[in-house]
Design a protein that fits this description.
By secondary structure, the protein is an alpha+beta fold. It has eight helices and 21 strands. The strands form four sheets. The protein has a six-stranded mixed β-sheet, with helices on both faces. Strand 17 and strand 18 form a beta hairpin. Helix 4 runs parallel beside helix 5. The chain is elongated and about 80 Å long. About 35% of the residues are buried. Bound molecules: adenosine-5'-triphosphate (ATP). Adenosine-5'-triphosphate binds next to helix 1. It comes from Natranaerovirga pectinivora. This is Molybdate transport system ATP-binding protein.
Length: about 350
């Protein structure tokens, strides 16, 4: 297990993060400049915190109190950088052997050959990084790291420079490589929510140097605890609302003239809360549909077609909502009004005083 509680101030920025990570992939999700890379660098021993403690599987890597600060090479941590940072003047074989150069030549060779086979790099041993595709570079970088048998694997935006087709292929490949060849803790830095959801078991959301929520990926996406987490996970509908009634496991809420029901998932501290509704969870029906509970007749303000979906912005009794519907459902829009249904179980409520 990895346990982290560290603080570091750099100019106007303060990193103040505390979290635990177990075996499996923990995604660190946050916008640019929120402290993701600084967190990884502090773990790897490339940046020294001002205060705090880092332990990995019971061993103290850093403790300001005990004045312990293990050098990077003694931390048993593998770090794959954004651009893979392969040595350009070394072949694939030599890049992979780099981290085990302290072993005797025979053992080195055996291990590298084994790793080259596992990573499907056979035939490329004598190639230089500039002669490799993006995927081959990624596999070489992973091989160079995994050969050192790290207890913790740090991946800093491993797909940021790639186009979406290659990205999907490499994501799958990376997951398979990790599943088949690595049994430790993985921290994966990303600012892409979809990528975090596809690759990680747990997600930690970071904002301005602080951990604002950590949990299973479904917790983070479907039960964000604050407006900041909802925004960070790309929730398109977040608005202030008042609780007017609580009854039979439902809250009745009012926002402008829109009165709607939400399933009660937790007790709210105040009657003034924020509601979040993900754009794809709102259903649409033709404008002449008979209205039932949580169905509303809306005026369409804007409609934008993408390749596979349509985004509609509607005015629902003074509440402006963004809705994403499959292309086929856009046929239900025949004039400038439409009926929408907001499933009460899809609404998440967040206390106004958080985030
Ligand atoms: N040496 C430094 N001196 C002053 N400020 C620094 C230094 N290094 C980093 N920072 C600041 O610390 C903050 C966190 O940087 P960090 O690289 O961890 O962000 P990040 O979340 O990884 O961002 P990105 O997604 O853009 O890579 C930033 O605001 C950055 O400007």
């Amino acid at each position: 297990m990895l346990e982290v509680s560290i603080q570091k101030t750099l100019g106007n920025f303060t990193l103040d993060t505390s979290f635990k990570a177990h075996k499996g992939v923990l995604g660190i999700l946050g916008s640019s400049g929120c402290g993701k890379s600084l967190t990884l660098k502090s773990l790897a021993g490339l940046s020294t915190p001002d205060e705090g403690i880092i332990t990995l599987n019971g061993q103290i890597l850093y403790s300001s109190e005990s004045k312990i600060n293990l050098p990077a090479r003694k931390r048993n941590i593998g770090y794959v950088f954004q651009n893979y940072a392969l040595f350009p003047h070394l072949t694939v074989f030599k890049n992979i052997a780099y981290g085990i150069s302290h072993l005797d030549k025979d053992t080195q060779k055996k291990k590298v050959v084994h790793m080259i086979q596992k990573m499907q790099l056979a035939g490329l041993e004598n190639h230089y990084p500039s002669q490799l595709s993006g995927g081959q570079q990624q596999r070489t970088a992973l091989a160079r790291t995994l050969i050192t048998e790290p207890s913790l694997l740090l991946l800093d935006e491993p797909f940021s420079a790639l186009d979406s087709h290659i990205k999907h292929l490499l994501e799958k490949e990376l997951l398979n490589i990790i599943k088949e060849n690595y049994d430790g803790i993985v921290l994966l830095v990303t600012h892409n929510m979809e990528e975090a959801y596809r690759l990680c078991n747990h997600i930690m959301v970071v904002d301005k140097g602080k951990t604002i929520q950590i949990g299973t990926k479904d917790d983070i996406i479907f039960s964000p605890k604050s407006v900041a987490v909802a925004q960070m996970t790309s929730c398109k509908n977040i608005f202030k609302t008042q609780v007017v009634k609580e009854e039979n496991g439902y809250y009745t809420l009012k926002s402008n003239a829109l009165i709607f029901k939400s399933t009660k998932k937790h007790t709210l501290k105040s009657s003034s809360v924020y509601a979040g509704i993900r754009a794809h969870t709102i259903k649409v029906f033709p404008s002449n549909t008979v209205l039932k509970e949580n169905m509303f007749s809306c005026h369409i303000l804007e409609k934008t077609d993408s390749i596979f979906s349509t985004t509609v912005i509607v005015d629902a009794s003074g509440c402006i909502l963004t809705i994403e519907i499959p292309k086929s459902d856009s046929l239900k829009i025949t004039n400038d009004s439409i009926t929408i249904y907001i499933p009460p179980e899809e609404i998440f409520l967040m206390d106004a005083n958080k985030g």
